[in-house]
Design goal:
Number of strands: 2
Number of helices: 18
Radius of gyration: 22 Å
Number of domains: 1
Distance between the termini: 28 Å
Strand order of the largest sheet: 1-2
Structural class: mainly alpha
Shape: globular
Length: 467
């Protein structure tokens, strides 16, 4: 990709050149597609890796699959911190470029890297101290606990890979270079896929490590992706310059990053809490119910991850054009993203409704797990198209710097509605009823999202001038 394709030059009235990133000039549909497709492709690869990872683990034992499913809340918490910080960095850096404040963009990048290091140190401590008590709070089964401690300790103590990958990929995304992000994510995922069977089952002379092998394969892929993303930023990203010479953390800038990012962190952390509580509700029925829930999350990622990739392409476009005061480009980006996301979700729900048994068969599901999982997938899948609107509009909130709206919607969906609904439905004594809590919560989420969108449109968007 040439430098000329990354940005154009504007000539000001006094004859001076002024940089204009492609996010402010390319046709919106073409821009959204070219920025999102690489992210969507890389997210699909990530989703495929997540699914195949669990498929391999399920061949160890169903208890191993249950243990990995139970690890998900702490993994989500880690991703919440990395991703939420990235949201703040993404919005501020893209807006700075739109406003032609290039020094601020550089400073945002450097402070973002600093924050990723601090985040890793936090999860290093968690990985060394919390893992076993975390599992014991969910189950008393010694085999599940043993599998879980092996897996999660490695994932958390070696999480410098995922934090490095998140920050350097966000810097690429913030400046419109999503093709390189596709390469980094794809490379990391492919390495993970290759290493999984080798380390889990002891192929090619490697030791047979079981679930610990799955964890090790994961962190190797993340480290390679992080290193590659760092190299791309240094070599292929002229819009920002990373230098730690004379670096001091900028408290005000970090505060602004988390002003935008904290709602996203809380929002995703709530997802972690939701999964933890759902696991505790489901374990009351059986460990198979927990495994089914874990498989659902793996399968739904194959539908949701491309939509998240679409959002990763959308957010910098909206943020840039918000900074450049181009309302029409902002709104067109949101509408097109909504259309594309809905199309993806419709395909997803068609598949889970048509062949749930086939999907569960990939995970070596027992007859009991297949029967339970078929009902679960068909019920939960109903909410996919509604979720498309909520996810895309929530990303609009983040791009405009009002992530607090997304946070409120997430709290109401998962804590105020979903968990209480799941608990009350569980009292009926049939696990099949519990799955209805997901579509119930999504309908409420759509209503609240619409209320906030109308509010921000009247307060902010309609007053933005067009260039």
């Amino acid at each position: 990709m040439s430098l000329e394709s990354e940005k154009t030059l504007e000539i000001t009235e006094n004859g001076e050149e002024k940089r204009e990133n492609k996010m402010g000039v390319l046709p919106v549909n073409k821009l959204l597609i070219t920025m999102s497709l690489p992210m969507m492709a890389s997210m699909l690869v990530q989703a495929l890796y997540n699914i195949v990872d669990s498929i391999f683990v399920s061949r160890v034992a169903e208890d191993a699959l249950t243990a990995v499913s139970m690890a998900f809340p702490l993994q989500m918490l880690m991703i919440a911190l990395a991703g939420g910080t990235g949201v703040g960095i993404n919005a501020i850096l893209s807006r700075a470029l739109g406003e032609k404040e290039f020094d601020k963009a550089n400073k945002t990048a450097v402070n973002g890297i600093f924050l990723s290091v601090i985040s890793y140190l936090l999860f290093l401590v968690i990985g060394l101290t919390v893992v076993k008590p975390f599992y014991m709070s969910q189950t008393t089964d010694p085999e599940i606990i043993e599998y879980g401690v092996q897996y999660l300790t490695i994932v958390l103590t070696c999480s410098f890979g995922i934090f490095g990958q998140f920050i350097f990929e966000r810097l690429l995304t913030s400046t419109g270079r999503t093709l390189y992000t596709m390469i980094t994510q794809g490379t990391g995922a492919i390495i993970n896929l290759i290493m999984d069977p080798i380390l889990i089952f002891g192929l090619l002379g490697a030791p047979k490590m079981g679930v610990a092998g799955a964890a090790l394969a994961t962190i190797i892929g993340q480290i390679v992706a992080a290193l590659l993303a760092c190299i791309f930023n240094i070599k292929k990203n002229p819009d920002i310059h990373i230098s730690f010479k004379g670096f001091k953390p900028d408290g005000k800038l970090i505060g602004n990053i988390y002003k935008i990012g904290v709602p996203s962190i809380i929002m995703q952390s709530i997802g972690s809490l939701m999964v933890y509580i759902m696991n505790k509700i489901l374990i009351g029925f059986s460990s198979t119910a927990v495994a089914v829930f874990g498989v659902y999350f793996k399968l739904q990622s194959f539908v949701f991850m491309p939509v998240f990739g679409l959002n990763n392409g959308m957010i910098p476009i909206v943020a840039y054009n918000y900074g450049a005061e181009k309302k029409d480009r902002m709104m067109k980006t949101w509408k097109l993203a909504w259309i594309y996301a809905t199309a993806i979700m419709v395909v997803g729900v068609a598949v889970v409704e048509a062949v749930p048994g086939v999907l569960l068969g990939f995970f070596d599901a027992s007859a009991e797990m297949t029967a339970m999982g078929t009902v679960a997938l068909r019920i939960i899948g109903i909410h996919f198209p509604i979720a498309a609107y909520c996810i895309v509009t929530g990303s609009m909130f983040q791009a405009l710097g009002v992530s607090v709206y997304s946070m409120i919607v997430s709290i109401m969906r998962q804590i105020v509605v979903l968990i209480p609904a799941a608990y009350l439905l569980s009292l009926l004594g049939n696990v099949d009823y519990v799955w209805w809590s997901f579509p119930i919560a999504e309908v409420m989420s759509a209503a609240v999202t619409t209320f906030f969108f109308k509010r921000i449109y009247e307060k902010t968007i309609k007053h933005i001038g067009n260039n």
